[in-house]
Amino acid sequence: MAYSNLAREVFQQEVNNLREAGLFKEERHIHAPQDAEIEVEFPAGSSLKRVINMCANNYLGLSNNPEVIGAAKDGLNQYGYGMSSVRFICGTQNIHRELEKRLTEFLGTEDTLLFPSCMDANAGVFEAILNDQDVMIADRLVHASIVDGMRLCNAMRDTFKHSDMGHLEEKLQDHQDKRYRIIITDGVFSMDGDLARLDEIVELAEKYDSMVFVDDSHASGFIGKTGRGTHEHCGVLGKIDLITTTLGKALGGASGGCVSGRTELVELCRQRARPYLFSNAVAPMIITGALKVFELISGSTERRDKLEENTIYWRRLLTEVGFDLKKGESPIVPVMLYNAKLAQDMARDLYAEGIYAIGFFFPVVPRGQARIRTQLSAAHEKHHLDKALEAFVKVGKKFDILGKSKKEIIAKYGM
Questions:
Q1: 289 and which of 59, 72, 118, 347 could share a cystine (Cβ 3.0–4.6 Å)?
Q2: Which residues are catalytic?
Q3: Which fold has domain 21-53+301-413?
Q4: pTM for this structure?
């Protein structure tokens, strides 16, 4: 027998070890569309509970927008359910190229190529454009999908300390012998919520003749004056060589991603990127829904502005009552707890109080950096945030963490 009883026991013990260490991730079953309030079944088999959702990437509140849904239905009716093919065979419709042109215009780049997801874009981009004569220099907190994409590429890999421009400059100096250097960073770091210092990164790239790559998944649609992303926020529109981003967060929340940037680099991805070449094209209804999203956000910054107001309000509320927060200005507001079991326990108690928030811990974040990552949406109203605060305060008092420093929390609960 290929899969022996011994193998079963070994793998089951690994699962049990995750449970015992407080690292087991449990999924909640949502019985409603994504919104500020959702109906959840947790644990499995229990009755439905209506809760305030404080952990979705639904930044602009468009996941359940009637106009987006209507456009998706129109796409389904006109273009069919799916492409049943990859792009270069018979999987490209006119609407795919229409959305690529719209993304190019929005991001301020030269060309864009759609992928099934941003994870696929990150998996394919580096291998498509680099070889063993090149070096990739990444911020140490880049998203896991970027790390995976770098592993698939035979260029040399190096890192710099998070947002440390002095250390990045040292690395660029060290690698002047390479054919090409590419600086790799998130635009908004998904776990901490802080923004990359893109203006300084671009300055160093120009000084040391390097390319710049940014994954702007947690910024596209709402960061910057008109929501174009961190490159707009930092005043470097048109100066980023490669941008990857997603349609699965602020830009509708369904699926799909892209590589956008210099024409020849995008074309190399079209020719060589394996996740593009060997994956079905994005479904037509997602394309037409996304086109409606761009129509909505290009006509007004109302949703972006409300999201910013909610972010400022929520961060102020949590700070005033004494939670330990990661500094930042994005809608990602992490409540730091440092201990994995504490993060799990607090998340369960918050759920009992009608607040849906998830504990994050290793390997999603480094050991000893466990947290509850709260995320704001334009769909949130003030009464949602006020109720959420009441629950956070109640649970925070139960675990005696309000007003406590990192050192005090770790002394009580460990790392």
A1: 72
A2: 190, 218, 249
A3: Aspartate Aminotransferase, domain 1 (3.90.1150)
A4: 0.94
